[in-house]
Amino acid sequence: MSTKLPNLSQWLNSYDDPTILLGTDYRIVAANEQYRATYGDGRALEGRTCYEISHRANVPCDLAGEICPLKKSREIGQPSKALHIHHSPQGREYINVEIRPIKNSDGEITHYIEVLRTSGIANTEPHTQGLIGKSRAFQNMLSHVDRVASTKTTVLLLGETGTGKEVVAQTIHDRSQQQAHSFVPVECAGLVETLFESELFGHAKGAFTGATSEKMGLVEAAEGGTLFLDEIGEISLSEQVKLLRLLETGEYRRVGSTTARKANFRLVCATNKNLEAMVAEGIFREDLYYRINVFEIHLPPLRDRLEDLPILIDSMIQRAALDKPITFAPQTLLCLSGYEFPGNIRELKNIVERAALMCDGQAVLPQHLPAKFCSKMGAEIDSAKMLTLKEMEEQYLIQVLASFQGNRKSLAKQLGISERVLYRKLASLTI
Fold first, then answer.
1. What distance in Å separates the CA atoms of residue 9 and residue 14, rounded to the nearest whole number?
2. What number of other Cβ atoms are within 10 A of residue 117's Cβ?
3. Helix axes 309-320, 344-358, angle to 10 degrees
């Protein structure tokens, strides 16, 4: 049985965001004016696939390694959402894609409504602030951040040292209902046990020797905002009891005071430790673990998102406000791509700053880095044959072409060369 659809133009234009009507074959049946203005390219949209327009791809998202909300909606018969990188006049940007199925009187899905909303949660190009990346591992993490940020749900960030847990926590706060209030980071590893209560809850005048005046605690400072407890796995069992009481009752008392105060904050915690193992060992309370682990987000190590190296480095160069402009040569990026980065993004930042000091020109070369960063590359050269710089450059270009999803103009910009030079180099490749 066919589905009767209302006047398509009037219906779709009632949506404020770019919206299209899709058939079950991914092809556009109709589009509203906002979609045409944002994603139109001067050619007719009707009859073309959604993934051609948004991804400039010839296969659906799921076949390209992404979550396809249309496929998921078809499987579950309900609306579905996903965070994707789409092409737009502003470049490649993060977009929230919402799919809503349309069913006929027999309950069969005949069409889908696709609504697109700019996310702004991260950048796909070098930027001076916020989260930056486009690798699959980064996108997977970001999709979880995007889902939980606007809620009041307690979040637990898990990841190795230097993966950017505080930046992610700040992003969650900036996109939450608490964004107009304070974001209060607490370095738990730096809290002395004897002062834990005083720092967290504050103290009354005369509460102990040296307490010459009243002091506001960090919980009170986070009133209406977000309290970020970094390295929560470092707090002692006695401190865990005090924190658990705060979370269970929603109340606290300043040290030396009998007056109970109401706590009102959104909690985000982070750790590089295995809290489940600590619970099993009896060094982390199980009840506290379940209090803080409501929504878990794993931050990928840098070695799992090496595709992001060029834009992370460019962004760090912008943020460092160096005395001279520098770029990392292709062979240097290739060299770094073989390094494990135990210190993750924090270590990469140190590499960039040191390279800027060691480099007398504008191009950072492998010799400007300590030997350990290129040890894997050196081992490969020793075990095979000495490569010329031209051969190393060609290998790097082949690697970049296999993973880069933008156009040649943006690729040339990221490589720090002109578009004409890039075309000449690509023309000389033997692939």
1. 9
2. 14
3. 60
Distance CA 268, CA 169 (A): 7
Query: In this predicted model, what pLDDT tens digit does every residue of 318-346 receive, in sequence order?
Result: 888 777 788 899 889 988 988 999 999 99
pLDDT digits (tens, 9 = 90+) for 266-287: 999 999 999 999 999 999 999 9
| CA distance linking residue 110 with residue 98, whole number of Å | 17
Cα gap 273→280, rounded to integer Å: 13
Q: 241-264 burial string, b = 16+ CB within 10 Å, else e?
A: eebbebeeeeebbbbbbeeebebe
The label of the residue with tokens 């020109």 reads 361
Q: What is the pTM of this model?
A: 0.83
CA angle 375/377/381 to nearest 5° reads 115
Quick one: pLDDT band at residue 296, thresholds 50, 70, 90? very high
Rg (CA), the chain: 26
Which secondary-structure segment (H or E) carries 112? strand 109-118
Other residues' Cβ atoms within 10 Å of the Cβ of residue 107: 7
Report DSSP state, residue 27: B
- Helix, strand, or coil (residue 255): strand
Q: Which amino acid is at 193?
A: E
d(CA 379, CA 385): 10
Entry field: residues in the chain: 431
Least trusted range by pLDDT, from 86-95, 140-149, 173-182, 283-292: 86-95
